Amino acid sequence: MSRPFYITTPIYYVNAEPHLGHAYTTIVADVAARYHRLAGDQVRFQTGTDEHGDKIAQAAETRGVTPQQYADDISGMFRHLWPELHITNDYFIRTTDPDHIEVVQAILQKVFNAGDIYKDSYGGNYCVGCERFLTDKELVDGKCPEHDQEPVFIEEENYFFRMSKYQAALKEHIEANPDFIRPERYKNEVLAMLSEPLEDLCISRPKSRLTWGITLPFDHEFVTYVWFDALINYLTGLGWPSGDNFATFWPAAQHLIAKDILKPHAIFWPTMLMALAAAEERPATDYLYQHLNVHGYWNVDQAKMSKSLGNVVRPLELAEIYGVEPFRYFVMREMSFGLDSSFSEELLVERYNSDLANDLGNLFSRVLNMLHKYREGKVPAPGPEQPEDTALNRLVEAVAREYQRENNQFAFHKALASVWSLMGAGNKYVVANEPWALAKDPEGGPRLDRVLHTLCQLLASVAVLIWPVMPLTAEKMAGVLGLGRISDGMLASVAEGGLLAPDTQTHQPPALFPRIDTAKVKAKAAKAEQKAQPAKPKKTKKQAAAEPPAEISIDEFAKVRLKVATVLAAEPVPKTDKLMKLSLDAGEAEPRTVVAGVAQHYGPEELVGKQVVIVANLKPAKLRGVTSQGMVLAAVDGDQLCVVTPSKPSKPGSQVR
Ligand code: MSP
């Protein structure tokens, strides 16, 4: 029977370009969607972009464009990236879509009418990065631990959502439905949060402070808080409050997020849904989602991925070098769903060579080459069955069951490990049965038929099982094996066995995954980098500095992003007498580190608190082991050097033109 399955990703902020983290979540959602299609379920998969709020307004201002222009630009990048990674979302939502604005206002009005939204005055510590007020408990050394930034104290009148009213009911629901939030560690985290009294949630911002948001329908002086706006996207995309999609898919809703946004999804959202149900006088379970699936974080070089550290991994660059499918396979196999993982290109190459080139690629070509050599490429009718054939067939059935069990629980890495156990078993079976010896044996014909038949069936099963993760490879395998297209609902046939009918004509196998020569990859990457930079005549550094071009165009100048930044901290770089490491507030979510050659002209205490002008889009460079994310401008007169500073205090991040 076809069961509905609705999967969503977070809608991504448009203040940054898509990176590995966004790609991972969206690939997981795609694998889940494809897996359910393969299982014959009725699937809807939604992703999109989150476009209102302080962060976006600030990012647009830094770029000197309107928030809408800015949002259009970055939202477009996300929208266009997904097909390149073979993502098959059914819908792409933007929080600036007119229907979404209508739905948010309708829900606000309903909850307000029911008395669960009220006006009050509030003073608190507001973190711009999180776009919310933080409780004292959440601060570490007076800073937001997520953004390593001191919050700003803000006091103002605002509207509040009676979140506390639903605390007990939510706790009860989670306890009664242990897989409401999974894996378990995140459920426990949420229960720990709920063991303390919940405060009501501030859900508005006065327009005097922020205009880039959805106006409250009951007070036009305010816009709604981004989270109240953003979470509702999951309903808008289905056509709430009516229609077939809403009726079919909302009861089967599952969300997918990383641990960073656990609280909004595990506490704000279900309590909002409970309030909506209460306003409509319906049971809460009519509105509560089925599962919240939470994954861990990708770190790079043991650190959080961030623009300011210059360690952002761009998915398309990797896909271009290694192929989209190996990239999808790597992230799905490498990360244990729920735990953090470390990304490195070396690991990707290792997995490619061992799992894809060796295990899968070799078994595929080995079996098909034998089939062509001994049986003209035709799948033979099986000869009599022996215990080792039965054992291998049973293993395929067992793997198909385990695969479903693990995938249903979002343990995709385990499902893949299980499929790969078939490759090991297949290779052992080849070695044990020695088809090459059977081919020489005048009595070996029926046994060889059985062995080749069993191996072909195994490969056909593997093709179907890897389809959610590597659809093109799966289709290629299926084509070569004469299995035809892999279609929705095909999963059931794997457990039943016999995907290939006797006499099916196969084709010569292509090399699915040619081994990667690591040295070649490095050379290719270096070449690509060279190509990306305009060819320059070779000059010494001194010559180059002495001879800037006589003229540059305004467009060339516009490529340089100059910004005002305030020095937060300064310390000399050890073992040099020229370099100073500066930590700068450049109006960004996190401070930037810039290494400047000013140590012979300024002491650290002279610099702290000073405003400087930086080149903000300079490629990060390592200087004496410190990664410098920009350059400080200074006037140089012979031996004298003084840093350039705005003539009046300016907001950190202000553009210099
Ligand atoms: N706009 C909010 C979400 C609103 S949903 C109603 C938001 N956007 S975000 O752009 O910051 O995206 C956060 C999500 O991106 C994470 O929950 C995760 O899905 C993905 N990731 C971003 N960085 C990541 C890693 N380093 N590792 C894994 N995934 C991460 O929060």
Q: How much helical structure, as a percent, in the residues?
A: 40-55%
| Distance between the amino and carboxyl termini | 63 Å
Spatial strand arrangement across the major sheet:
3-2-1-12-13-7
Q: Note the overall shape.
A: globular
Q: How many helix segments?
A: 23
**Mean pLDDT reading:** 92
Distinct small molecules bound, one entry per kind: 5'-O-[(L-methionyl)-sulphamoyl]adenosine
Computed Rg: 29 Å
- Which structural class do you get from the secondary structure elements? alpha+beta
Largest sheet: 6 strands, parallel
Tally the beta strands. 26
Q: Strand percentage, roughly?
A: 15-25%
Uncertain runs: 534-547
Task: Describe the protein's architecture and organization.
This protein has 657 residues and is of the alpha+beta class. It is 44% helix and 19% strand. The chain is built from 23 helices and 26 strands. Helix 4 packs across helix 10, helix 12 crosses helix 13 and helix 14 runs antiparallel to helix 15. The longest helix is centred in the middle third of the chain and has 31 residues. The protein is globular and about 95 Å long. About 2% of the residues have low confidence. It binds 5'-O-[(L-methionyl)-sulphamoyl]adenosine. The site of 5'-O-[(L-methionyl)-sulphamoyl]adenosine has 19 residues, from strand 1, helix 1, helix 7 and strand 12.
Q: Gist?
A:
This protein is α+β, with helices and mostly antiparallel strands.
